Amino acid sequence: MPRPPFPPAPRRATFRGMADSIEITINGETRFIQRDATIADLLGTLSLDTRKVAVERNLEIVPRSAYAATPLAAGDTLEIVHFIGGG
Amino acid sequence: MDLDFSDSELHRYSRHILLQEVGAVGQARLRAARVLVVGAGGLGSPLALYLAAAGIGTIGLVDDDRLELSNLQRQVAHDTPRIGRNKAESAAETIRRLNPGVAVEVHALRLDAESARALIPRYDIVCDGTDNFATRFLLGDACHLLGRTLVSAAVLRFEGQLTVYKSHLGGEHPCQRCLHPEPPPPGLVPSCSEAGVLGAVTGVMGTLQSTEVLKEILGIGEGLAGRLLLWDALDMRFRTVRLRRDPACPLCGPAPAIRDLSCHAAAPAPVCAPASAPASATSGA
Question: Is residue B282 part of a domain?
């Protein structure tokens, strides 16, 4: 009998109470974050320095100027895009 | 447009001319085009070689670096006997051997605000294959302000990114600062000489970059303006994401803080970072 495929069981709520949290996907991993959290909140939670990444939400780059005003929605898929400059 | 081709040209470019989207008219467009390649390193090598092979009429090469042994793991426009030579000159020599029909203009200098102002208007399209953020932001700002399309690629470790900036055309076209408003502070993002890069990754990205340049000149297909191509070689996964104009962009927004290249004025590598941190001028990527 083959083992069940990915993904592993989702992480349980990072924040208090499931009712207050929504499920999103970051870099392919399921996470629960507080309802009404913005992208700025999320990056803070992840301890990510906004000066070295860009954030892609549902296949669209979110301008850095909009992080604090962009609330996340249930089901959002995010990718952290590295700021690279090698040639 | 001059559609007169020699027998040798017809033979050399026959596989292009066969393509309905290129044809003789497209090939004549490539021959009439002037392309500036900034950085003759990991990206610039395959980029310049494919542009030359494709019959771009004039290629300008900008690089002030000298070839080092550690460059040869990926910078395929050069070879071992040329260690110590200027990279723009070395790449020009390879190009002339590959295609004597291409006029190569060597600019053995480190791009600064003054040389950017002098050089960029002389070319139709500009390619960023540089290895440091100071020059990348100078190029991004200069191309926007001087009205040139910028085809920009970047690599690090196993990753590559590619996009086309045409913010000078206005409308919905984003600029480089819509993606990253300012360069990262020194030390926050490593260079290829610090973090490494798989040589073949630069080959793929430089070749994709040349493809976009050719498409822009030929006016065929769907360009990458307003989209960002992301490639992770370890996952072997390509993704293309939407990149929109940032309404708060300091360069192409409605109230731009950057209106000229004065913030890049002091050579060799200042940056328009509000943090006023000294810029890193890493080389060797």
Answer: no
**Distances in Å between the alpha carbon of B213 and those of A23, B105, B126?**
41, 18, 9
pLDDT digits (tens, 9 = 90+) for B203-216: 999 999 999 999 99
* Band (B75; pLDDT cuts 50, 70, 90): very high
Q: Are B178 and B244 in contact (CB under 8 A)?
A: yes
CATH of the domain at B163: 3.40.50.720
Predicted confidence at residue A13, as pLDDT, reads: 46
For A:39-58, CB contacts with B below 8 A are 49, 51-52, 54, 56
Q: Which pTM does this prediction carry?
A: 0.91
pLDDT more than 90, % of chain A: 77
Does any CB of chain A come closer than 8 Å to the CB of residue B248?
yes
ipTM of the complex: 0.89
The total domain count for chain B is: 1
Q: Is residue B269 part of a domain?
A: no
Which segment, A10-19, B82-91, B262-271, is predicted with the most confidence on average? B82-91
How many CA atoms within 13 Å lie on the side-chain side of B162?
A: 26
> Are B271 and B188 contacting, i.e. CB atoms less than 8 angstroms apart?
no
Place of tokens 């909009």: A66
What confidence category does residue A6 fall into, taking pLDDT thresholds of 50, 70 and 90? low
B276 lies in some domain: no
* Chain B nearest-CA residue for A60: B242
Tell whether A68 lies on the interface with B, counting CB pairs under 8 A: no
B205 close contact with A: CB closer than 8 A = no
Domain that holds residue B114: 23-264
Contacts of B131 in chain A (CB under 8 A): 85-87
Closest CA to B38 of B116, B121, B103, B124: B116
Q: Which residue among B43, B188, B230 places its CB closest to the CB of A51? A: B188
Report yes or no: B70 at the A interface, CB cutoff 8 Å.
no
